[in-house]
Amino acid sequence: MASSGLEQLKITFFEECNELLQSLEGGLADIREGTSNEDTVHAIFRAVHSIKGGAGVFGFSELIEFAHVFETVMDEVRKGNLATVPDVVDVLLRANDTLADLVEMARKGEAVEKGYGSDSRHALEMLLSGGDEGGKKAQPGAAKEETEEFSFVPVKFGDFADDPPVEQLRTYSIVFRPKPDVLKKAIDPGFLLNVLKSMGKLDLVADTAGIPPLSALEHDGFHISWSGTLETTSSRQEIESIFAPVAADCEFTLTDLTPGAATAAPAAEAAPPPPAAAPVAAAPAPVAAAEPAAASRPQEAAPMLPPAQDAPANGKEARGAAKQPSSVTIRVELEKIDRVVNMVGELVIAQAMLQQVIDELPEHTGAKISNILSDLVRHTRGLKDSVMAIRAQPVSSVFQRMPRLVRELSAKTGKKVQIEMVGETTEVDKTIIERLSDPLTHIIRNSIDHGIETPADRLAKGKREEGTIRMSADQRGGRIVIEIGDDGGGINCEKVLKKAREKGLVDPNAVMTDDEICNLIFLPGFSTADTVSDISGRGVGMDVVRRNIQDLGGRTTIKSEFGHGTIIQLALPLTLAVMDGLVVEVAHQTYVLPIPNIVECLRPGEDEIHRVIGAAGALNLRGDIVPLIHLADVLGVDQAADDRKNGVVIITESSDGTRMGLIVDELLGHQQVVIKSIEENCGTVQGIAGATILGDGHVAFILDVEMLSSMTSMDGRNPPPAAVADTAMNAARLN
Amino acid sequence: MPLAMTFKVLVVDDQLTMREVTRLALQEMGVRQIIDAENGDDAFKKATTQPLDMIISDFNMPGMDGLGLLRAVRGHPAVRKLPFILVTGRGDNALVVSAAQAGVNNYIVKPFTAEMLREKVEAVVGKLS
User: What pTM does this model have?
Assistant: First the structure.
């Protein structure tokens, strides 16, 4: 085998291993929870078997050996010789972890340490020997070569005995009408006819009336049907079974004409077909179109038989015509898709620039081009959505790794923890998924290490002995919201505040709400655990989590109830590259607001604004009171007071449902924008999600509505001074 | 003309890796027409609706397994004489016996090389090239 082909295959194999390991993990979890059935066990067996098979191709011997023992155990489970009692399931789960490790080592090309996984393997072998160590051991080595010595004589083609003689010769009337698209489905009517022919005396007439004129003929359309008789010893079921797989693509009727047959009323007098029946005409026959009505009556049709054609030869020809449908999925390197994503981004910018130029044209010419452009805009959006859908992956690929983590940590800490997962099918951009693993791991480590109590503590508090970690993923308003909750001890706000004050992280006199205090754990260098453990590390954790999520354009929030548990919520964008934005102007600067956050835009009358609450007042929006904020204030942009009167209000909603009304000077339009990160150049700027290039070539900031909302709610109306300084400085630099 | 030129094989395996391994091996043998199926049911439909010269099928698959496919093929008037090679794992003696009873033409044990596959195929249909 060509070695480059093998290298490529290796990549395929490891991709496939990931899928198999996931189904393995999922299956074992089902068994543990008692929600498994026979199929689950079979699927697990197959997964191990497939990994072993693939490993065999590449000669990963440690992996093969281990998978073999694992497979043997699963075979016993499958056969019902081994019950999946908790002890057994534990061994299987450990074996699963070992298998995953071995796959990973093989993938990285690392040498497997001598004796690696021998504990797990030994435990599996113990299961096979019925727990009796001295008893018969599983002997993979002895079993494996047996087949090779097994004597088997290959059966040569044609060695089969011919069909056994069947009692009665019967005559059937046959109508066979393939649908026009059969060739596209890789069905070869000629082949089917040949099979019929092999069953007895076949006597058919081709009806070519359906063939369109040459000018309208498509190369892969099929327009011929056949009718006639078959004289055979085969049963009706046998004949019908030939056409059963193509029932949806061909019309096939079979009538028994044999005298005495129940279905053959008119056929009693039917003359038997001519003895020297011509072979099947599988190709368009040069014969005058037989009238369908006549053709369906075999005794009349028989004399109109076309000249015999070489049917087998036609069968061969038809092979080429029947294009094979390829597999329904293909594997593409991510890099190739990324290239398409980048191109789409550039296309979006080019399109915006084009729009800009058209807007400056005289109205008559401009309107015409505008119409065409609007089509282009629609197609570009479709293109973007399609590309993004290709990149989207269910979060299960990262969720699936967590049960193992929980198992390992609960074993290490002596705590009992179970994990529940909801919404694993929610799809997120692959780039985001890849970068979710670390934050999620960290959060779960924290939950188990600091959140969930020891079994004794839990029982003393009247809780169930086993703690629960619940992970959920859900799409809410253009964002993906992932929640990790536990039913542990929750965050002790007093302790957190005390610690934060000790470390000088907060003003000693600051009055803070519980939620605000909880959020302090995200501050760099914060650690509340009384003892530093090797699991959660040294308090560098949660701030890293928050930063990771921020890097993805997401937000982290925490809610905790002391004594009852903690929920950490990660709100993430669906994609990182392109988004729909509303372009607005504030104090002669241009900003972009993400459309998914916008509920509506309006220009309220003076009387609709209540001046009592907050500085800019509040808007009575059909009964709901929405606080109003001048965007210029939040961003710290200087603006003359009179400019503010005729502002437009944009009602935004963040993922937690909080609404606010942002007052801007002008709406400039709706545009797809390509998100460019500013972090490398300007660092993290509160309230700014990124920057983009507008149609006129100017740079505009994309606002982070989530962050704006929390910035304003944190202290009424004044933004944190740092943000103002940064933003103003950066705005000046970039504009 | 060598047999390989016109030889058409259906490769059945639920695992992409194994399908590709078999495809590579067949290509090395000069076989040009190779189609594949991911499961027994799909394979049966493909086998009974187009001309084929051989099926090489894995045993272990979800749904209809390789033995089931073999039995279905042997029970179908159109294709019951179609050469059939079963791919098995190590130590599957009982399976080979069942397969032999069901009318398998040959079997091959995973993992295999192109040369091993060639021997097995040629034992059934004669020299390919």
Answer: 0.49
